[in-house]
Inverse folding.
C-alpha cells in the first residue's frame, strides 16, 4: 500500500463527501430555524414535487466538487419513508470556477479547496464559503 503522500492530487471522494456534508449541514440548520423561507420557483434549479400546498418539508441537495445538481436527482429515490412523501426537492448546480487543489482546473465548485487531503492546518476559503452560502440563499429567495 502506497503512503498517502505519494498519491496523485485528483478530485478526492473524501473531499466531495466533506464538501457536500458541510453544505448540507449549513442548510439543514438554516431551514430548521426558518423552514418556510424558501420560494417555489427557480430559474436554474429544478424542483421536484407536487404542489407547494402539499409540501411538508424541503431538501436542498448540494452536490460535491465537479458534480452537478441534475446528476444527483436520483438520490431522492433512496428516501422512501413516509416522512418524505410530500417533500419538495431542489438540486442546484454550483458555478464553474477554478479549484486550487486541482491545479486551477475550472469545474463546478461551491467554493475553492486549496489542498487535498484537508487537515486542520489547511488554508481555508472562508470568504468563498460565505459567498457560496449567499449564492444558495439567493437561489432560495428567487421568485
Amino acid at each position: 500500500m502506497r503512503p498517502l503522500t505519494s498519491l496523485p492530487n485528483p478530485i478526492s471522494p473524501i473531499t466531495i463527501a466533506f464538501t457536500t456534508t458541510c453544505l448540507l449541514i449549513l442548510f439543514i440548520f438554516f431551514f430548521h430555524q426558518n423552514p418556510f423561507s424558501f420560494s417555489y420557483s427557480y430559474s436554474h434549479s429544478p424542483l421536484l414535487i407536487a404542489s407547494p400546498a402539499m409540501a411538508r418539508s424541503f431538501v436542498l441537495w448540494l452536490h460535491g466538487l465537479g458534480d452537478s445538481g441534475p446528476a444527483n436527482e436520483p438520490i431522492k429515490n433512496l428516501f422512501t419513508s413516509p416522512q418524505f412523501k410530500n417533500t419538495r426537492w431542489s438540486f442546484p448546480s454550483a458555478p464553474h470556477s477554478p479549484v486550487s487543489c486541482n491545479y486551477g482546473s475550472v469545474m463546478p465548485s461551491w467554493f475553492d479547496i486549496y489542498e487535498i487531503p484537508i487537515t486542520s492546518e489547511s488554508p481555508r476559503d472562508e470568504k468563498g464559503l460565505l459567498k457560496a452560502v449567499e449564492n444558495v440563499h439567493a437561489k432560495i429567495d428567487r421568485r
In short: Helices lie at 13-33, 126-141. Residues 13-33 form the longest helix (21 residues).
